[in-house]
Amino acid sequence: GVLHPRLVHLQHLPHPAALSKIILLFQAKGIDSAVEMSWKDYFMRVVPTALGTALDINLSNASLVFITVTFATMCKSASPIFLLLFAFAFRLESPSIKLLGIIVVISIGVLLTVARETAFDFWGFIFVTLAAVMSGFRWSMTQILLQVCVMTNVIQMP
């Protein structure tokens, strides 16, 4: 029998961890140069990013039970809207007329593409929209995490 997709995904998780350690070994500073992160930083930055990623993936998968892949793809194209909204909320980006115009254009485009969907299902739409929200959240949190890493010299900028 086939394992549940989440269990199959769990089998893939050790590979990136091992590759990260190998890359650290070949870097100029070596594996011992890793900067320690406090538990507070870990729970404030890494855990929300991981939860946002997990919810994005699982809500996307759950939505496919109710809606077609085509409809899910159309709805997930709203992710940049939520990315910009979270960027405004976390003060990663300052609101401007240009960015608000981009949000309006994307919103109208998504609305036009999903307006005549024949296989519309309410719960599938809710799940995929929440997945798009989580996608925007996780990318904003990733940006915050990377900015902290650059400020603490974990990542060396050229």
From TrEMBL:
The chain crosses the membrane at residues 64-90, 97-116, 122-141. The keyword Membrane applies. It is a multi-pass membrane protein. InterPro entries: Sugar_P_trans_dom, TPT_transporter. Keywords: Membrane, Transmembrane, Transmembrane helix. Its main location: membrane. The keyword Ubl conjugation does not apply. One of its GO terms (cellular component) is membrane. It comes from the Eukaryota. It is found in: Membrane. Residues 23-139 form the Sugar phosphate transporter domain. PANTHER family: SOLUTE CARRIER FAMILY 35. This is Sugar phosphate transporter domain-containing protein.
